[in-house]
């Protein structure tokens, strides 16, 4: 058995948007490497063991993180490296993964909900609408110099960049062919209580960013697919409404009293979701924190006596229990059943019938 490093996507920010597998890996971890600035504290506090070592990635160097991986390899530890959103998107996953493999560590990647998906859910828009755009271009902080080339495709774009570069982004989007009335969604700390999600246009983008004082890494969604619909169609049809099958979490949430408001209904469902994973979380924590059974000390006469008594078999216990024959048990249940014999059957000779005496016939 060797150590294991799990690269877990923590989701866009909210603690309850982590996957079940990600929460399970945190509960099993001996060491959790994370950055409180991009991962919600409650996400770690809810799932990590009390004795787990927490390493703030923003306060240590990359070489110190590699030292954590070395300790995991030597001590067969389970390490979780938390990534904001999904590890495969702007997470510097490749270098860390290769480092762990060189150290002989077992590795796995647990996907997470990306910030792009969270923003699309927040504004209730399909980012790849078939009538407008069927593709999505993702570009990170280091790829803003290619924004004009990507914008030439005229499709939906997701740009993760510092808010201080907004003027440069606007210029390159215009150079790529986007008009000033192109819809833009600005998102910061999406899914968190202090999130900022603003809808504007390309011409008003700089003013919007300055108004909300967004200077750190911000997500910009650009494209015609983000335009608000002119009218909403009423869902009227002749097909019968099919009720969905209730899940275990839904049934668990419905056991209590009915919530008074929609907000309390969401909170009740969230509590049910957490309680559904509570059991195996506690099992994982107890398994890792269970103390080793003490070995008997040769100098302790009490332990030696208890060990000796446990080794001596009881008098009442037979040395070897032999299973009863099935046929004999069946015969005991049914008296008319005859037990089979293992000895060869001998055919008994029938006694000869007595001969009838001949009587002399009288003349």
From TrEMBL:
UniProt KW Transferase keyword: yes
InterPro entries: 4pyrrol_Mease, 4pyrrol_Methylase_sf, 4pyrrole_Mease_sub1, 4pyrrole_Mease_sub2, Cbl_synth_CobM/CibF, Siro_Cobalamin_biosynth, Uropor_MeTrfase_CS
UniProtKB keywords: Cobalamin biosynthesis, Methyltransferase, S-adenosyl-L-methionine, Transferase
Top-rank lineage group of the source organism: Bacteria
SUPFAM superfamilies: Tetrapyrrole methylase
One of the GO BP terms on file: cobalamin biosynthetic process
Low complexity bias spans: 342-354
A Pfam family that the UniProt record links to this protein: TP_methylase
Region (Disordered): 231-264, 285-363
EC number(s) stated in the UniProt entry for this protein: 2.1.1.133, 2.1.1.271
Domain Tetrapyrrole methylase, residue spans: 5-205
Pathway given in the UniProt record: Cofactor biosynthesis; adenosylcobalamin biosynthesis
Molecular-function annotations in GO: precorrin-4 C11-methyltransferase activity
Similarity field: Belongs to the precorrin methyltransferase family.
Protein name listed in UniProt: Precorrin-4/cobalt-precorrin-4 C11-methyltransferase
Taxonomic lineage: Bacteria, Bacillati, Actinomycetota, Actinomycetes, Pseudonocardiales
């Amino acid at each position: 058995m060797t150590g294991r490093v799990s690269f877990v996507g923590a989701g866009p920010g909210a603690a309850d948007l982590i996957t079940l597998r990600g929460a399970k890996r945190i509960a099993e971890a001996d060491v959790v490497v994370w950055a409180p600035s991009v991962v919600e504290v409650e996400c770690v506090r809810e799932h990590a063991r009390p004795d787990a070592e927490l390493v703030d990635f923003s306060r240590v160097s990359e070489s110190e993180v590699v030292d954590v991986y070395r300790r995991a390899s030597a001590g067969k530890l389970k390490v979780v490296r938390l990534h904001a959103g999904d590890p495969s998107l702007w997470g510097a996953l490749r270098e860390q993964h290769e480092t762990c493999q060189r150290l002989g560590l077992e590795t796995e990647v647990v996907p997470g909900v990306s910030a792009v998906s969270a923003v699309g859910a927040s504004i209730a828009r399909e980012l790849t609408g078939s009538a407008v755009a069927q593709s999505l271009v993702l570009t990170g902080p280091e790829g803003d110099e290619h924004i004009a080339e990507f914008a030439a495709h005229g499709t939906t774009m997701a740009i993760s960049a510092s808010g201080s570069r907004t003027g440069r982004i606007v210029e390159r989007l215009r150079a790529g062919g986007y008009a000033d009335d192109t819809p833009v969604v600005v998102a910061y700390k999406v899914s968190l209580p202090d999130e900022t999600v603003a809808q504007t246009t390309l011409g008003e983008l700089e003013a919007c960013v300055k108004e909300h004082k967004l200077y750190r890494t911000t997500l910009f969604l650009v494209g015609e697919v983000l335009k608000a619909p002119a009218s909403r169609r009423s869902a009227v049809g002749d097909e019968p409404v099919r009720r969905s099958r209730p899940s275990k979490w839904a049934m668990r949430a419905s056991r209590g009293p009915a919530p008074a408001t929609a907000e309390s209904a969401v909170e009740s469902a969230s509590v049910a979701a957490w309680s559904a994973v509570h059991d195996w979380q506690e099992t994982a924590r107890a398994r890792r924190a269970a103390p080793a059974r003490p070995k008997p000390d040769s100098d302790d006469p009490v332990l030696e006596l208890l060990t000796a008594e446990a080794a001596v078999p009881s008098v009442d216990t037979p040395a070897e229990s032999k299973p009863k024959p099935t046929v004999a048990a069946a015969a005991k249940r049914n008296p008319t059943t005859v037990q089979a014999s293992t000895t060869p059957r001998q055919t008994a000779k029938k006694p000869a019938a007595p001969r009838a005496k001949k009587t002399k016939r009288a003349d």
